[in-house]
Amino acid sequence: MVIDERKLIETVFAPLAAGAPGAFGLRDDAALLPVFDNEDHVVTVDTLVEGVHFRSHDPADTIGRKALRVNVSDLTAKGADPFAWFLSLALPATTPKGWVEDFAAGLAEDQARYGLDLYGGDTVVSPGVVIISVTMVGRCPAGTSVRRFDGQSGDLIYVSGTIGDGALGLLVDDTARMAGLKAADRRMLNRKYLLPDPPVKLAMVLRSYGRAAMDISDGLVNDLGLMCATSGIGARVEIDAIPLSGPARAALAAQDCGLPDLLAGGDDYQVLAAVPRDRASAFEEAARRVGVAVSRIGRFTAKSAGVGFFDGEGEAIDLPKSTFRHFG
Amino acid sequence: MVIDERKLIETVFAPLAAGAPGAFGLRDDAALLPVFDNEDHVVTVDTLVEGVHFRSHDPADTIGRKALRVNVSDLTAKGADPFAWFLSLALPATTPKGWVEDFAAGLAEDQARYGLDLYGGDTVVSPGVVIISVTMVGRCPAGTSVRRFDGQSGDLIYVSGTIGDGALGLLVDDTARMAGLKAADRRMLNRKYLLPDPPVKLAMVLRSYGRAAMDISDGLVNDLGLMCATSGIGARVEIDAIPLSGPARAALAAQDCGLPDLLAGGDDYQVLAAVPRDRASAFEEAARRVGVAVSRIGRFTAKSAGVGFFDGEGEAIDLPKSTFRHFG
């Protein structure tokens, strides 16, 4: 296939921009981004590289959806509601037309799911692999978004959803290590790897009750370390309080995987939040109202205490920061 | 070199974000983009690929500067003043540290030149070549930006600067065709290829007097064709009125290059504008006041007349749409 950029824009990408007046049907070189009274714009950029952030054989539609979801995840954790995005797509000239169509079908599906519109972008030829860069814009009432570096000693540590499923979803496919897993569990974990499910409704809860937040994309150990480092604090996590899915518990019990796989594997796309103690019950109640599971897993401490993970006997557990070092 | 993303951000990129409070020193995953009362945000994305949009041996500092300038060029042509940008950088793991430092030094220089601040981005490993994607945001009074597709039959056609120098700058380096050129002219043309010089001050003139505008990045023939196609009009260009630089005229006279090289070669990064006849003198006067050279090269016509280029005798000249088909 020789990719014709103009045709690609007209037939594949322009339909994704149909709901955005400021995108002008992608007939211009630049977009008019809506600005809302008394609201802030929160912007994030996340880039996925074939062979690093997704596998060549992953279904094209889930690759597109994941490219959106990792950015939705970033904005959710900032307390912002995503509404606009821009795509820079580097495609090998040999990319089959069907791949691009499936990729776009996935984008369309998740645009509807998350209330997003494509506002613009650029498509270029890649002499190497597929590289997908998404710039996404979210909105929130002025002054209400939360940062990564504002955690304080004494705040409680919360995470959303369950931890480690995405990392296991990658493992079940790539190794025979977890042969004991039921087929249904295997599929569920793999699905979580392919299609993270960021808790978008937690955004409004975070802006009311969160002190600091970030999404967990590189593993809980690494990202908690980042929040502590940038906030100038320490943390004490009770490992037994970390929420695990049924399949993850089963794999752990069967010694098919270890804690490092779950807590340092990456691809969670859940929220890590610092919540002041006196807002904790309101935070939990608000999360329950919007239907997002949150778990209190420990508390932030003075920086001097470091970042520690403790078992039920109060013993410190040594965990690597990451079991998989992808660059970026 | 094994590139450490965090170190790269702290030492190389964070200084570029120092002037932007909403970038938080790149210590967060997302930025707060300023919103201005009664102003629009105009956003563009342009991606440069090594070997396609720049050459591997181009100086790293000019590659960075060009990545900014092609986006500045897009916004200028929309009547917007650029102020914020986001970088997605895909780098081979073997990229020398010095290359990245030179690249960033170029970015710093042009940030100062254009009043830009880095607000965020992502750095990833590229298994192939360097790919640089920039998302840039400009501002203008609400409702004043100009589109590509609003040209009308009867409007006058204007271009800024001179046409064809960038394309010749690529030719002088790559072929022996233009051996007759003086060394100084050769350097000047090459410089124009490496470092386009978008007429930023024309933005305010366009929002007052322009009806439609776009930047010329893929050659005058191609881009005028695009403006006509999207506006549903035709055009009649007087070739003798197209502004050429001294070196371009010399190369043309010596038959070292032909009109197609100049008019369909690309890399101009000048403005193409449709100006209503009754605003033409005000447009010219305003351009003069801000020190941007503009030339009237013809007029837009009914769509049925097509897009034609005519010589001094009124003969139609056949020109290819492009002498160089890069994809994107």
Estimated helix fraction of chain A = 25-40%
Largest interface, and how many residues on either side? A-B, 63 and 63 residues
> What spatial order of strands do you see in the largest sheet of chain A?
7-9-6-10-8-11-12
What structural class should be given to the helix and strand makeup of chain A?
alpha+beta
What portion of the residues of chain A fall into strands of 2 or more residues?
15-25%
Radius of gyration of chain A: 20 Å
- Number of H- or I-type helical stretches of chain A: 10
How do you describe this structure in short?
2 copies of one chain form a homodimer. With 328 residues, chain A is of the alpha+beta class.
Task: Give a description of the structure.
The structure is a homodimer of 328-residue chains. In chain A, the strands form two sheets. In chain A, strands 7-9-6-10-8-11-12 form a seven-stranded mixed sheet, sandwiched between helices. The first copy, chain A, has a four-stranded mixed sheet with strand order 2-5-3-4. In chain A, 34% of the residues lie in helices and 24% in strands. Chain A has 328 residues and is of the alpha+beta class. The relative contact order of chain A is 0.16. The mean pLDDT of chain A is 94. Strand 1 (31-33) of chain A pairs antiparallel with strand 2 of chain B.
Helix-strand blueprint:
2 copies of one chain form a homodimer.
Chain A: H1 5-13, E1 31-33, E2 39-49, H2 60-77, E3 81-91, H3 97-114, E4 117-125, E5 131-141, E6 156-160, H4 165-174, H5 183-194, H6 202-209, E7 212-216, H7 220-231, E8 234-238, H8 246-253, H9 259-263, E9 270-275, H10 280-289, E10 294-301, E11 307-310, E12 316-317
Parallel strand pairs in A: 3-4, 8-11
Antiparallel strand pairs in A: 2-5, 3-5, 6-9, 6-10, 7-9, 8-10, 11-12
Helix pairs in contact in A: 2-3, 4-5, 6-10
